[in-house]
Specification:
With 180 residues, the chain is mainly α. 54% of the residues lie in helices and 4% in strands. The chain is built from 10 helices and 2 strands. A hairpin with a 2-residue loop joins strand 1 and strand 2. Helix 5 packs across helix 6. The protein starts with a helix and ends in a 12-residue tail after the last helix.
Length: 180
């Protein structure tokens, strides 16, 4: 846990020697085509099935997040970067389409992609580490987009996973390995 905590605080690195701020500085193409950072930026309680070197959340890390606003601020910064990647943004206590929505939505919204799994991971992590309100705002945004955007290509299964992620709140250890 100390390795993950140092990474999330910005003082340590992931399994490839990258710092969190370095990853958050990636351009959208690099975020899209690099697949082993998301498990560090948004860790879960269950082991990743695709990145065996990814850390997992434990009760001690959850307690650190509950006690340390600076950690929650850093997690919100990670969320903001990924929201921008998806063409979304946080503002006025909600999440909505951002100024780059039209440019970014074709990368994930008009068809099911691996980004569906990333969004599930983000929602589960936010809930597990004390940002349940932000997870709820993201889910509300996704549901609103689904009903208002005619070119939504994301299937029912992905939306069910997203709803389940927030409803469950990722409050306990999971039996299965995550595919994200």
């Amino acid at each position: 846990m100390t390795e993950l905590l140092a990474f999330l605080r910005g003082s340590g690195t992931d399994h490839r020697g990258r710092r969190l701020d370095e990853i958050l500085g990636y351009d959208d193409d690099r975020l899209e085509y690099t697949h082993d950072y998301i498990q560090w930026v948004f860790p879960l309680r269950e082991a990743s099935g695709v990145n065996p070197r990814a850390p997992v959340i434990n009760d001690a890390l959850v307690a650190e997040f509950a006690a340390d606003e600076a950690l929650r601020v850093r997690l919100r910064a990670s969320l903001d970067r990924m929201l921008s990647f998806y063409g979304l943004e946080r503002r006025d206590g909600r999440i909505d389409k951002g100024p780059n929505w039209l440019r970014r939505k074709g990368n994930w919204f008009t068809q099911g992609t691996h980004n569906d799994l990333r969004i599930t991971r983000i929602l589960k992590c936010l809930c597990a580490l004390g940002l349940r309100d932000e997870a709820g705002h993201l889910l509300a945004c996704l549901l609103a987009l689904r009903s208002s955007e005619p070119d939504c290509g994301i299937g029912d299964t992905a939306f069910r996973y997203w709803q389940d992620a927030v409803a469950a709140g990722s409050t306990g250890p999971q039996e299965s390995r995550s595919m994200i």
